[in-house]
Design a protein that fits this description.
This protein is mainly beta. The protein has one domain (about 15-110). Helix content is about 0%, strand content about 55%. It contains no helices and nine strands. The protein has strands at about 15-20, 30-35, 40-55, 60-70, 75, 80, 90-95, 100, 110.
């Protein structure tokens, strides 16, 4: 059986989900939905998320997004960097939180232990 490796998305697309793995000593993934897009700007709204597996206390586990909006729409400037395969990777920056990038569809590690 041949093993296929999923390609990580590298562009923001309207209707798709993006994420940011914020937190200084913790891993606190935040999910966003891209609601509008121009060449240099994306408009995002925060989505609710849920634990799909955890340690029994809800402090450590993996999270996925739920299509329930939380908060108002906001915008961020789209920036680019060249990743290891010489493709352009888009990202946006959330001040005091981290880098927002297109979500690869995998559950993200969550850890609220400080």
């Amino acid at each position: 059986m041949e093993r296929k490796i999923a390609q990580k998305p590298n562009k923001f697309i309207v209707g798709e989900i993006a994420f940011c793995n914020g937190g200084c000593t913790m891993q606190l993934p935040t999910f966003y939905k891209v609601v509008r897009r121009t060449e240099k700007t994306i408009w995002l709204v925060v989505l609710e998320s849920q634990l799909v597996e955890h340690d029994g206390y809800g402090q450590v586990g993996h999270k996925i997004p739920v299509d329930i909006q939380k908060g108002a729409v906001f915008y961020r400037r789209v920036k680019n960097w060249n990743n290891s395969s010489s493709e352009v990777q888009e990202f946006a920056y959330e001040r005091n939180w981290g880098i927002i990038e297109p979500w690869d569809g995998l559950a993200k590690y969550y850890n609220c232990l400080d």
